[in-house]
Amino acid sequence: MAVTVHSLTMRYVLRAAAAGKLEDGWLYLPNHENPGLDTACLMIVSDADEDMQLIASERGFSVEGLDTPTIEGTVHAALQFQDSPSDELLLESFVYYWRFDAWLPMPGAPEPPPLEEAKLEWDREFFDSLAAERPEELCRTEGCQRGAIHHSVLCRVHHFEMIRKEPCPFLE
Question: What is the pLDDT of residue 1?
Fold first, then answer.
């Protein structure tokens, strides 16, 4: 039941992960700000059910970073863009995952849209992909005067609601 605490910099952690030499543990950061390459951090390695958050907090590192397999994953994401990723790209990939729980889609990627905005965009794409309504065949929803779309007995709005199981945000 051993606990090992390493005081490191982000640069060291990322380079060790890139070399496949980062010990299996959890990284802790000093605050919620995006870390820089020279930001001090703690790597806690434990083979027991220790309260690593408490151990880190007692040393002034209260913000949970990522575990070793995920840090290695951020390195693999950076490798999609450069064979030997720069320290800056490794850091960008780490920060993107840490902040957004998503792999870096490309260097310099903007923040992903808020969940509500992304869902509305996804819903819009689906709605727009539905076939045109046929005015000669009415939607079978009681009281609806819109035409049914091709390969359905419902109009676009009611077909959307049947598939998505929620009200359609689009009325055109």
Answer: 57
Q: 68: closest CA among 103, 101, 13, 26?
A: 26
Predicted confidence (pLDDT) per residue in 23-39, tens digit: 999 999 999 999 999 99
Q: What is the pLDDT of residue 47?
A: 75
User: What single string gives the DSSP state of each residue in 100-153?
Assistant: HSS---STTPPPPPPHHHHHHHHHHHHHHHSPPEEEEEE-SSTT--SEEETTSS
* pLDDT < 70: residue spans in the chain: 1, 49
From CA 129, how far away is CA 120, in angstroms rounded?
A: 14
Q: Could you tell me the two tokens for 129?
A: 């992909």
Provide the β-strand partners of residue 64: 28
- Judge whether 13 and 71 are in contact, CB under 8 Å: yes
